[in-house]
């Protein structure tokens, strides 16, 4: 008798639990089911992964060879430069050498690829948005550091005319390298977002190039330089919400670079005529 009552109680508890689970996952209950919650959590994690890809150190080296090579070259250059140079000048030269390394590796490793190779590469690696943002901030900082170096050093009474010209040339080279690195970084990210969107994002195939269904890196560089030079998208159509946000960031960065160019021009004119 006791065992029969225990079995009945267990069946009742089991049935009640099943009904509770059904109510939790039922749309009529107004609640949110566990599968839906798990799916939303997965999408949230995927969106966060778009900003930072948590991988091991050695895997990160293979994923981002351009970035780490540029950091290594820049660090070595900074250590070898004489302490007699002004800090802003050392920072500008360090950035220039690191930026040239980044540009060389990008053109050598990436821009010789066709659409099939881009798609294969995008499936296994991409610079996260955090890396892209880091490169952009470094580019802007280096640009304004070079401008500050020109302005401050040129005003010193012991600075000769030749040194003023050298500082002006350094600032100009730094701006060109910074602008080029920014456009290359955005072009690579546009390409990888096009061929391999982040989970939970609508970035995949979010760009439409007239007469081109499988664009290569040069097509994405054309798109990036259009924004970088004129802050507009030219004839390329942006069809994705995620890429519109990235394009907006790109346009804002372009504004700062244009401002830097204007400030550099005024600084050079003032230093050479002062």
TrEMBL record:
Domain of life: Bacteria
The keyword Membrane is annotated on this UniProt entry: yes
Region (Disordered): 1-37
Amino acid composition bias (Basic residues), ranges on this chain: 1-13
InterPro entries per record: DUF1345, TAT_signal
Cross-referenced Pfam families: DUF1345 (PF07077)
TM segment ranges: 130-152, 164-188, 246-270
Entry keyword Acyltransferase: no
Sorted UniProt keywords: Membrane, Transmembrane, Transmembrane helix
Protein known as: DUF1345 domain-containing protein
Native species: Rhodomicrobium udaipurense
């Amino acid at each position: 008798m006791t065992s029969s009552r225990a079995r009945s109680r267990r069946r009742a508890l089991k049935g009640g639990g099943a009904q509770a689970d059904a109510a939790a996952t039922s749309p009529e209950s107004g609640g949110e089911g566990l599968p839906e919650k798990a799916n939303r959590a997965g999408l949230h994690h995927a969106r966060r992964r778009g900003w930072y890809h948590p991988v091991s150190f050695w895997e990160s080296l293979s994923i981002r060879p351009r970035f780490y090579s540029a950091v290594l070259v820049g660090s070595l250059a900074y250590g070898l430069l004489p302490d007699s140079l002004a800090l802003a000048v050392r920072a500008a030269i360090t950035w220039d050498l690191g930026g040239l390394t980044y540009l060389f590796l990008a053109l050598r490793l990436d821009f010789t690829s066709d659409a099939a190779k881009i798609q294969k590469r995008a499936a296994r690696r991409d610079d996260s948005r955090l890396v892209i943002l880091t490169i952009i901030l470094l580019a802007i900082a280096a640009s304004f550091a070079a401008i500050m170096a020109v302005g401050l050093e040129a005003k010193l009474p012991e600075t000769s005319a030749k040194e003023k010209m050298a500082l002006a040339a350094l600032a100009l080279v730094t701006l060109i390298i910074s602008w080029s690195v920014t456009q290359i970084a955005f072009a690579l990210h546009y390409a990888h977002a096009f061929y391999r969107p982040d989970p939970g994002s609508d970035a995949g195939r979010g760009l439409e190039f007239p007469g081109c269904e499988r664009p290569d890196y040069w097509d994405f560089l054309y798109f990036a330089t259009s924004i970088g030079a004129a802050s507009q998208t030219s004839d390329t159509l942006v069809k994705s919400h995620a890429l519109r946000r990235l394009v907006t960031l790109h346009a804002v960065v372009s504004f700062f670079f244009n401002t830097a160019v204007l400030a550099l021009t005024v600084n050079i004119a003032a230093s050479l005529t002062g």
